[in-house]
Amino acid sequence: MREDPGVRIEAFPVGPLQANAYVLIAAGGDAAIVDPGADGENLLDAVRARGGRLTAVWLTHAHFDHVGGLAELMELEPVPVYLHPDDRPLLEGAAASAAAWDIPLRQPPTETRPLAHGQTLVLGGTSVSCLHTPGHAPGHIAFHLADEGVVLTGDALFRGSIGRTDLPLGDAEALLASIRDHLMTLPDATRVLPGHGGPSTIGAERATNPFLQPGWVARLR
User: Fold this and answer.
1) FRET pair for 74, CA 20 to 30 Å: which of 35, 37, 198, 215?
2) 7-220: what fold?
3) Using CA atoms, how far apart are residues 185 and 142, in angstroms rounded to an integer?
């Protein structure tokens, strides 16, 4: 039986593309922000208003709508930023990518600590497993909090959909394989907290997501 009450997780849709930034606060107050896509100061204020102290930023991937608040956030609270190395080119080109969409964005800092598949992060008394789920982006990571029954899927898996693969470095076959091998193997009751839109569960996506039905998955076998 767990001795701590776990991790509080709250979503904050931010920026013009309404990407979900997540604030995670452990029982002792240690906090992480996942994907600060905009409004870095407001996200930090949210951490502090809830009694947390920011200890890290975790990035599912480095598309500009998920890192747009990073420069502001790091000026206010310089904590370690974790990113899979395969997404460094996306981070380095974030401002230029946003400009192509006519969206102004301050270039985020590019100093990061590496993430890898199977790596364990710790927040308070909770272990967080890193699942490498490339396809939408080459270094895409999902964060699985097994004790909480939650997986933060970034832009790999949404409620009723999956991530785009028509962007630079996207790979549709890799994305479907990632979902099949690393997300659909989680328990059906696992809550899915995606990078855009509302939550779901692994079981609901397995049963109803049109991209995960046999006609699609059969192409990978």
Assistant:
1) 198
2) Metallo-beta-lactamase; Chain A (3.60.15)
3) 13
